[in-house]
Amino acid sequence: MDSFLLALSNLSSGWVILSAFAGVLWGIFGGALPGISPSIAMALLLPFTVGMEATNALVLLASVYVGAEYGGSIPAILIRTPGTNSASATVIDGNEMAKRGQAGEALGISLMSGLYGGLFGLLVLVLCTESLAQVALAFTPAAYFSLGILGLSVIAGLSGGSLLRGLIAACMGLMVAFIGSDPVSGVQRFTFGSVDLLDGVKPILVMVGLFAVSEMLVQIGEPPWARGNTGSTRLKLPNWAMSKRLFKPQAIGAAIGTFEGVTPGAGGTVAAFMAYTEAKRWSKHPEEFGKGSPEGVAAPESANNVVTATALVPLLSLGIPGSNSAAILLGGFLIHGLQPGPMLFQKAPEVVYGLYGGLLIANIAMLLIGLVILSPCMWLVNRPKPYLIAFILALVMSGVFAIQQSLFDCALVLLIGVLGYAMRLLKIPVLPMVLGMVLGFMVESNYRRSLLISGGEHSIFVTDTASAILLGLSAVLSAYSLWKEISERRKSAK
User: Fold this and answer.
1) Largest CA distance in the chain
2) What is the band of 159 on the pLDDT scale with cuts at 50, 70, 90?
3) Is the per-residue pLDDT at 129 higher than 80?
4) Closest Cα partner for 415 from 271, 206, 147?
5) The whole model's pTM is what?
6) DSSP string, 341-410
7) Collapsing DSSP states into helix, strand and coil, what is residue 181?
8) Domain segments of the chain: what residues?
9) Share of the chain above pLDDT 90, in %
10) Residue 422: which of 240, 161, 221, 253 has the closest Cα?
């Protein structure tokens, strides 16, 4: 009860409220700017928290995380450019809704799904921190490998009706993931003598190129009068009937986001894609996915916003940062002389529960700020097409350059954009490539670590209980997807 009262006391603290609103506003701006990830947006503010009170500083940093995860959906819907990695799944149906004149509806669904996901994640964080952290701690490298295989097993659901094309795209993504230094030995691979590739290819560069640059190339190739209609520039929140329809995909996203959030290394990107696939699998209207389905927006947005809170579970309970953003928050703790872990709840409970209260304010702030800024954002996309494309290109390139101040990154994004354009002409889906790239490092690194632990024995993947369960589930999903595609081909042949 004392802890609960500590959390509630922060709801009336002016500095905590100000920190939460300021953090969310900065986070939305950073998330909406392609190339500025949540961790980068948090890192830019980290030096300014040195002189702040501990609770206010941590609320500020955590609120940036909340705002950035939501902010990434704004350019994803309006200009087909994911502001963050986790917003890539939102592009699929969000941008299609915008092209149909439903930008206001898509942004409203994204906002409310993000709010529900954030509040659910906070509830999980408050009630189940210690127990969920124990689940994540029990995962061995073999289990992480199997988790990656489970993620790859959903490729069939992202292949647009052609499993072969989906596998080709996934292999391309895995090839990109292998560029750089070997995760175990450090040996250079596929760098072609370039020092710029020693650290590999950043996922955000691939996503910006595949989605944003390729879309601009498509738009340039269309007649001047051919342009998407964003419809009304007024934000439209889901009505009661739409809310009931979205409940299932939001619940699916919340469940997957909870699991992926407490699992270090998984993150919002994997959660968003898995939530999208499962929402399509269980939907009454799966044929609408990829063509502007509201459910296709609700599921990934709910999932990646749940992660903003559940990713803090292993950090607060065990002192283990499960993501880049959690690592930045760990730095915030250390700056103020605090060590996250089991003892933190005894030594500084006011900070922990103050953070809980700050996250609640941050989610409310996300709703209020979103209601204010979304209409101007929608007005922007109605500007003349040539000016809009030029503005987007300048925005994308400036964001990409800001990551490492590298012209090589800008050239790489343009090259990947050309590749994405060619894939669209050949009807090869880009989403499996993104998924293969995201999961490639996790699969390879944990595969190698597992073999080192077992002395080269592959039996470790079936003797480990968690790994065996995940591999079995992967086999079931893969068999089901293959059977479904064969059945659909037989029906179409008749």
Assistant:
1) 72
2) low
3) no
4) 206
5) 0.67
6) STTHHHH-HHHHHHHHHHHHHHHHHHHHHHHHHHHHHHHHTTS-HHHHHHHHHHHHHHHHHHHHS-HHHH
7) strand
8) 2-493
9) 5
10) 221
